[in-house]
Amino acid sequence: MDKLLCYNRSLTNLAVLRDAGLSSLDSDYICPLCMRSFSKECVRQDITEEHVPQKSLGGIPLTLTCKDCNSSCGSDIDVYLFESIQRIEQRAFLPGTDRRVSMQEGDGRLYGTLKVGENQDLLLNIDTKHNNPKTWNYFHDNILLEDSIIDIQDFPLKQDVRRSSAAILKNAYLFLFARTGYTFLSDTYYDSLRKQIMNPDAFILPERLWTFQNVSVQDGIYLTQDNHYRGFIIVYTLKLHGIHRVCVLIPTPKVEYLSACMCLRTIEPHVPIRILSLPNEDFLCDATAIARLKEWCYGWSLVF
Ligand SMILES: [Zn+2]
Predict the structure, then answer these.
(1) What is the pTM of this model?
(2) What is the whole-number distance in angstroms between the Cα of residue 15 and the centre of ligand 1?
(3) How far apart are the CA of 59 and the centre of ligand 1, in A?
(4) For residue 236, how far is its CA from the centre of ligand 1 (angstroms)?
(5) How many A from CA of 73 to the centre of ligand 1?
(6) Of 10, 182, 208, 301, which is the most exposed, with the fewest CB atoms less than 10 Å away?
């Protein structure tokens, strides 16, 4: 990723919007997550490349966010999404996965790693250096015997649906931001979406604007063709050992989040939905494309 190019394109986007009278944002760079402004002088140290989705789930640097947002999202939400995907794969005993496990006998607890082989064969590794020698000897002589049945417990993973959900939303929001900049995402309508991402424990948006439902279209950004949930469907892939596809709806500002959410829930698995690919135009720097997108977002009504 060319950080400078990305930075310059964002500035051009702001300038085009200002020149067209479509925005009053007057700033050098605005972090898309916290919407704070950063002057050119502090970009080098305060603005960072953001992997979308997160690096641990196969993401690549796609856009720029401020250092604070990048780091707080990493520890507050990204890690939860990573562990929830890890958990899905562990439950499925996906080949190539491994997990930390432990075994209890009396007062002694032995720690190890359980690996799932290519044929879903299981291999239990015990690192003797990281276990109490007495416990290890006891297990070795009395418990881990051939043909014996051992009660193995998974090491608890971080679990928090709201935090994982915030990470899922953040990815979709940043995919959309990378393509469309501040064109409509600077609307205060999206403040609640940004707040939800940055404050995952708070109940700001209805759950949930996304689904893991089987998605038959390619990764990308799509426009919904139903005004009841007029907005953007963002489809993307999370990669760990397996492939996990996510479909997120980011509504346009005239649609209430709750009604968009209710519409998404009514979509049945495997039933095609009416969507169109976001045209391959430059929605950051091309004034005509920007105006068209803006019109698509705002220039419609359910009332005739
Ligand atoms: Zn920020």
Answers:
(1) 0.87
(2) 20
(3) 19
(4) 23
(5) 10
(6) 301
How far apart CA 198 and CA 174 sit, in angstroms, is 13
Q: Which residue bears the tokens 């490349």?
A: 49
Instruction: Find the mean pLDDT for residues 175-189.
Output: 96
* The pLDDT of residue 156: 79
Read off the pLDDT of each residue in 139-162 and give the average, rounded to a whole number.
87
Query: Which residues partner with 60 through β-bridges?
Result: 52
- CA 178 – ligand 1 centroid, Å: 15
Residue 58 Cα to ligand 1 midpoint, Å, equals 22
